[in-house]
Amino acid sequence: MLKAKCKHGNELCSICLVADDAAKRAWEQVKNIAASTEWGERVNSFLTIRLSDGYCDGTLYENKKDAVKHCGGNEQWYAFFSFRNAPNGFASPKEAGIFLAYHRAAYDRGFRLPDPDDQFGGPDLIVPDMNEHLFDQLGRLMRSSN
Ligand SMILES: [Zn+2]
């Protein structure tokens, strides 16, 4: 899938990205889960978020491996959200959109992030809290796919 580059020269741009319905849904659901659970309960937990529509069933998994298993072999259609670096959820629908878009881009390029056979369920994507970090991550991702 070839995408046009934006004026910043990015295929996936945290400046240009507009939160879509999936991003808004993910943002709202994660926010509600954060509001209805204790910090200590959720901070080490994982959520599954469906990439196609941002759907999150609200189940808190103790570890990523359990979350990946729950996807029943379709883990490439999901993002795995950890409250560890974002205890109150996404800062905005746009941040949720970036999180989802980044996972989609990684999977598109053949990265296998979730791994049910891995001790920890596979490597994590960190929710970037600064655009520069995201650009760094994306830059590495794009370069490594060439
Ligand atoms: Zn841009």
Q: Can you give a write-up of this model?
A:
There is one protein chain. The chain has one domain (21-144). Helices cover 39% and strands 7% of the residues. The protein has 5 helices and 2 strands; from the N terminus they run H-H-E-H-E-H-H. It has helices spanning 21-36, 39-42, 64-70, 93-108, 131-144; strands spanning 46-50, 78-82. Strands 1-2 form a two-stranded antiparallel sheet. The longest helix is centred in the N-terminal third of the chain and has 16 residues, at 21-36. The two termini are 13 Å apart. Bound molecules: zinc ion.
Number of strands: 2
Physical arrangement of strands within the biggest beta sheet: 1-2
Gyration radius, in Å: 15 Å
Characterize the largest beta sheet: strand count, sense, and whether it forms a barrel: 2 strands, antiparallel
SSE blueprint and pairings:
Blueprint: H1 21-36, H2 39-42, E1 46-50, H3 64-70, E2 78-82, H4 93-108, H5 131-144
Antiparallel strand pairs: 1-2
Bound molecules: zinc ion.
Zinc ion binds next to loops.
Key attributes of the depicted protein:
two-stranded antiparallel ribbon, 5 helices, globular, binds zinc ion, 146 residues, mainly alpha, single chain
In a few lines, what is going on in this structure?
With 146 residues, the chain is mainly alpha-helical.
